[in-house]
Amino acid sequence: MSTPTTRPAGRSVVVTGAASGIGRATALKFAADGDRVLAADLDREGVDATVRAIEESGGTALAVAGDLGEQQVVDAVVERAVTAFGGLDVLVNNAGIMDRMSALGETDDAEWERVLRINLTAPFLLTRAALPHLLAAGGGAIVFTASEAGLRGGAAGAAYTAAKHGVTGLVKSLAVTYRDQGIRANAVAPGPTATGIRVDAAPDAHGPAVIGRLIGAVTGRISTPEEQAAALTFLASDAASFINGAVLPVDGGWSAV
Ligand code: NAD
Questions:
Q1: Residues 30, 85, 144, 160: which is the catalytic one?
Q2: Ligand 1 test: best mutation among 99, 144, 145, most atoms within 8 Å of CB?
Q3: 60 vs 55: CA distance, rounded Å
Q4: Hey, which of 32, 44, 160, 245 would disulfide with 65, CB 3.0 to 4.6 Å?
C-alpha cells in the first residue's frame, strides 16, 4: 500500500444521506474537524438544514438534493464537490433504506429493486463517479455504512441483508484493486441506531421482531448516530492509514455473540 496522501484537515468530503441520522452526524463531525462537506440527500429540507447547522458553526458545506439511484444526481454530486472544493478526498456512502424487511419468500420485485437500488447500486454509481477524482488527488478514502445485516443473516430482511453483504463485497473489491493507488475502502457495520430510518413491516414480520428482541437481550441499548459518525470519520482519517478492506462492527458487542 502506498503512503496515504489525504490531507489531515480541509479535505473535500461527500457524505450521502446527510439530511438525517448517521449521515447528518457524520457531516457535522467532518465539518467540525475542518473538512469541507458536500451533503447529499433525497430530502431537500433536511439536507439544507444540515448545511445551515454546519455554516452556523463556522464550517463550509453545500447541499445537493436528489435521488442517488439516478446517474444524473450522482454526477451532479461529484461535479459540485470537485468544482466548489477543488477536488475530492473522501466519499462516504451512507444513504440507505430498510423498507419492509420481508423474508425472501415474501419479497416482491418492487421491494427487491428499491432496496438494492438505494443500498447497493447508488454506492456503486457514486464510487465509480468519484474514483477518477480520488485518483487524480493521489488517493483518498471511501467509507460505507454497511450494517450488522452485512455480516450475517439474522439481522434484517432478505433484500436488505443481500444489499448490505453486497456493500461489504464492494469494500473488499475496492480495497484490493486500488490500494496501490493510495485509496482505502472500509465500512462501519452499525448495530441498531436511533435515527429517522423507517421499517414498513408488520409487527410480526421478520426484521423488527428479531431486532427488537436482540436490542433488549443483547445490545442493552441502541447506538447514537454520533457513535457511528465517530467510527466513519476515523476510518476516513489518516489515523486509519493502514486499515483497508475492513468492516468494523459498531454495535456494543452484538456481533460478538
Ligand atoms: P435515516 O433514515 O435517518 O437516514 C438515511 C438518509 O438517507 C435519509 O436522510 C434519507 O432521505 C436518505 N436517502 C434514502 N434514500 C435516498 C436516495 N435514494 N437518495 C438520496 N438519499 C436517500 O437512517 P440512518 O439509520 O441514519 O441510515 C444511514 C445508513 O445506516 C443506512 O445505509 C442504513 O442502512 C444504515 N444502518 C442503519 C442502522 C440503524 O439502526 N439506524 C443500522 C445499520 C445500518
A1: 160
A2: 145
A3: 6
A4: 44
Extract the C-alpha cell encoding 87: 477536488
Read off the pLDDT of residues 28-61 as tens digits, 9 standing for 90 and up: 999 999 999 999 999 999 999 999 999 999 999 9
Does position 207 have pLDDT exceeding 70, yes or no?
A: no
- In ligand 1, the atom with minimum distance to the C-alpha of 117 is 18
Ligand 1 centroid to Cα of residue 3, in Å, is 32
pLDDT tier for residue 210 given thresholds of 50, 70 and 90: low
d(CA 41, CA 15): 9
Q: What is the mean pLDDT of residues 89-114?
A: 95
Is 118's C-beta closer than 6 angstroms to any atom of ligand 1?
yes
pTM above 0.90, yes or no: yes
Nearest ligand 1 atom to the CA of 197 is 2
Q: How confident is the model at residue 197 (pLDDT cuts 50, 70, 90)?
A: confident
**Cβ contacts of 15 within 8 Å, gap of 6 or more:** 23, 26, 27, 30, 37, 38, 39, 40, 92, 94
Active site residue 178: no
